[in-house]
Amino acid sequence: MSIAAIDVDPQKTFTPLCPNELPVGEGDTIGSELNQQAKLANYRVLTKDAHPHNAIWVVKAHEDMLSPLDHPNADLTWVSHAVPGTTGFETIPDLPPVTDYDHVIWKGIEPDLHPYGACYHDLQEKLSTGLIEWLQSKDVSTVLIGGLATDYCVKTTALQLQATGLFIVIVNLAACRGIAAETIKQACHEMKEAGIRVCSSTEAVKALL
């Protein structure tokens, strides 16, 4: 049985390097921790948001974000972010080239889809991205998760993988950054309640393994 390290959306769009998109404090500083985590694994997976500029959920101003949408696969409004070909789409410093990963998932490409987790293209979780199936094909039993942001895409990806019952899921908070203290706390509570191991450091992850 194998271990996979999953780098969830470690893109400049979610860091202070792109202040007009969706910056997460210190989001650009987790590259080295993700690299340390990957050393514990047999496989390394990258997930990236890849959103069109004309997505149905796009609003122009940050103050217009987080308004509910009456759409089955786009629940909230957001400013444009992670558009392929822009700086925001790029991965953060210190990470290897995309071609050095063993598997890559691009999500949210369709203009009417805005998934958070890496396992499904749609919020209804009917259309697989192939991540679960790929992990199974590699006999992965344990997944180590880090990335951006703790309280959105990291949490959702971890919960989706845990829900399969196929993997031991470990979230490494040292390799994550989140949006706000309260929502990070809530995300950690939800993950622990689901049976996910939430660790504060790569050393703690190593001890679990």
Automatic annotation (TrEMBL):
What keywords were assigned to this record?
Hydrolase, Metal-binding, Pyridine nucleotide biosynthesis
Does Hydrolase show up as a keyword for this record? yes
Q: Report the top EC class in one word.
A: hydrolase
Q: Can you name one GO molecular function term for this protein?
A: metal ion binding
Which E.C. number(s) belong to this protein?
3.5.1.19
Membrane-spanning intervals of the chain: none
What is a biological process (GO) this protein takes part in?
Answer: pyridine nucleotide biosynthetic process
Q: Provide the coiled-coil residue spans.
A: none
Q: Which family does it belong to?
A: Belongs to the isochorismatase family.
Q: What is this protein called?
A: nicotinamidase
